Amino acid sequence: MDKLKQEFTTLTLVLIPVAVAINLAVGQLVIALKLPLYLDSIGTVLVAALVGPWSGALTGVISSVIWTATGWFPQAIAWVGVAAVIGILAAAFKQGGWLDGPVKAGASGLITGIVAAFLSAPIAAYVFGGVTGTGTDVLVAAFSGTFGLDILGANMAQGVVSDPIDKLVTFLIVWALLRSLPVRLQARFSGEE
Amino acid sequence: MTSLTLFRPGKSGLHRLHPLTKLSISGFCLIASITLPDPWMVAGLYFFLMVPLAAWGGMARRFLIACVQFIGPFMLSLFPIQGFFGRGTTILFEIGRFSLKQEGLLLAADYTVRILAGLGAAMLLMFVTRPDHLMQALSERGFPRSLGYIVVTTLQILPRFQEKTQMILNAQRARGLETEGHLLHRARRLLPLVGPLIMGSIIDIDERAIALEARLFNHPGPKTSLHPLVDSRAQRITRSTLSGLIVLLVLWRLLGWLSP
User: Fold this and answer.
1) CB distance from A97 to chain B under 8 Å?
2) Intra-chain end-to-end CA distance of chain A, in Å
3) What's the whole-model pTM score?
């Protein structure tokens, strides 16, 4: 409980809305650039790396709530748990020193992506009948049709193809950001002032 | 904030209800759309409870349009995927080695109705409830106040963020950044766009934290509100009834699963 209080300083409470806005704004920017990625968790990973697991998880949760509340992607709320897990994993990688170099940061992204894929697929399969109402549904249909996978399997395959690349790019962007953020600011988050 | 979220102001009785009453109505509809055994019952719930509620709030048209907008893409994927790749033995017709199965289509229809009612319930709540009032009502019931602050602040800074994104995009385009072209080209353009956006916004949060602390943001103890929320005995009874019904629905469904 003390650990929890320690994470949620005023500075963290101010950071989280900015991070959620980053998640949503970059998510929309990616759509504008027509890239086959989501990049909707940069803010989550950044908060997890700067502050810790609980704030990272909370950033993911609030982002899902806002995607729903704005009506931009109402179904996001169903994956709220996955968004939280991404924050917790990112904090764990940071604490293990994995976000210090580009290779390890990329590897952390790949692992996070695989975990996210395996957690997301059952939600798509059982809550929404195997679809998400987005462009990646085409991949689900392709995997089902080409390899004869059942609907859960095809969702897993789609996730394993899309998510690791997405999280790899996300973690590399966060690694680059951490390198360029002022040291003074980073120290304030980790409570080392 | 009002234009960003689904909320539209209004003077209807539904708008004037206590936020928690609306939350429990929405929660009941959501749970019912998952647990009711027959999709026809879910459809009934949607057309005979949720649509009339939206009409009471003066937004039947807006609600129906929003529902069509989100259920459309779902149906577009659900029917082909479940129809062709789901389990089933009743083959309607075949294209090459793929066969369209009746069971798959029925299951897709079942999912469609439940997604429509479930997400519709969440959207109905958003349409008629001010986000800040909902967070205020929750924090009055012991929900951490800082969570309310985070949600409301996010909704307030999002429009500014979108403006900033557009500005950076235009500025980089003016410098000759191509946002069209080959996939890898576009991917490489991401960093000069994302970098300034994130760095710019993180640098000034320090000042905001100091401004909040100077106004005793972290001060413990009760705080008064500028807009007190109105509640009534009838609403409290409605909320308890709905909460009871939610528990019953979940128990009923669990029992159904346990005893085949």
Assistant:
1) no
2) 22
3) 0.88
